[in-house]
Amino acid sequence: MTKAFISGILGQDGAYLAEFLLKKGYEVYGGSRRNSQDELYRLQVLGIEDEVSLVPFDLLDPYNVFETVSAGQFDEFYNLAAQSFVGSSWETPVVTSNTDAMGPLYILDAIKRNSPHTKFYQASTSEMFGLIQEPRQSERTPFYPRSPYGVAKLFAHSMTVNYRESYGLHASSGILFNHESPLRGVQFVTKKITTQLSEISLGKRDILFLGNLDAKRDWGYAKEYVEGMWQMLQLKSGDDFVLASGKTSSVRDFVIKAAECLDFELEWEGEQLNEKAYIKSTGKQILGIDEKFYRPAEVDILLGNPTKAKDILGWESQTDLADLAKIMVKFDYDRISKS
Ligand code: F7E
């Protein structure tokens, strides 16, 4: 049996990847710092909580990382653990850097020293492009991160490339653009929107407050993106790939699409901090802006060019934004109506 280790298995991508690898017949080990019942919920939603072996794993502790890699002798190691919320990386730049920059280095070095046959996947991110240097970002686009999170991820990305080139490791970096799902954490904007609009629809909330509605992202469905991670590790050698939908939409576009799923037709008024949205039929305000959700430096627009992934991996994003909103709203509406 092929043995895989997923750090961050309790997160959105970790849970979907575990489900995917189990279907392929893998023995799946998962590392996490948090083992509370509450946080097992993603594995429980997918019905796989008894099929994975959970082990204590903490990217902040190099000894723990070294021991896990050395003792496990895994065939594939997916590093999906991170402080992944861009917004809080300004409040915790050191923890973010220790986790997202140094953590992957500990893994790479442990693989190099004690388990060189292990194929490594690093969860890199479109946040490395930040202030974009080309209209469509590919593997060759220069980076310009705009947050401590982006800076830390760029260090880890560069280390992954460096360890591959220096020591011949099978190390790959997946530069993933935003990817969402019902299992997304509630602090991320799509999930916040689908959760809170569902609550409004069910009479459990009055108003949704957001930050910058003009930010544009290239959004896809996380369940499809984890397949691309696996495909990268099946190649002869490590490489870097952008996974993206190739389309960009604003936060406002996503609000409109999610609202449509709940039969809300919206009317908009005002600009920037004064922008508001009302339900057309009733005149009730359901959206407002709160400055606290703005970031010190924004990534205004991201648009990925996934041509290399299509050509070499045969990978393509399938679910468009309207369908993604439908999947997420349905899940949240059903869940909240039962609670
Ligand atoms: O923000 C704007 C916000 O937090 C998207 C992570 O997975 O993808 C994710 O990073 C946009 C930003 O994701 C709110 O200013 C407006 O422009 O959902 P997000 P993100 O920062 O793009 C990348 C690829 C990663 O690697 C990250 O780990 O939405 N926005 N109003 C808001 N964002 C939030 N969270 N909350 C708001 O109220």
Relevant terms:
alpha/beta, 4-stranded mixed beta sheet, 10 helices, 39% helix, binds ligand F7E
Description:
There is one protein chain. The protein is built from 10 helices and 15 strands. A 7-stranded parallel β-sheet has the order 3-2-1-4-5-6-11, with helices on both faces. A hairpin with a 6-residue loop joins β13 and β14. The radius of gyration is 20 Å and the shape is globular. The relative contact order is 0.13. The mean pLDDT is 97. Ligand F7E binds next to α6. The site of ligand F7E has 22 residues, from α6.
SSE inventory with pairings:
Blueprint: E1 3-7, H1 12-23, E2 27-32, H2 41-45, E3 53-56, H3 62-72, E4 76-79, H4 93-114, E5 119-125, H5 148-167, E6 171-176, E7 179-180, H6 189-201, E8 208-210, E9 216-217, E10 220-221, H7 222-233, E11 240-243, E12 249-250, H8 251-261, E13 266-269, E14 276-279, E15 285-289, H9 307-313, H10 321-338
Parallel strand pairs: 1-2, 1-4, 2-3, 4-5, 5-6, 6-11, 7-10, 8-15
Antiparallel strand pairs: 9-12, 13-14, 14-15
Helix pairs in contact: 1-7, 3-4, 4-5, 6-8, 6-10, 8-10
The structure holds ligand F7E.
Ligand F7E is lined by residues 84, 86-87, 125-127, 177-178, 187-189, 192, 210-212, 215, 217, 251, 293, 295, 298-299.
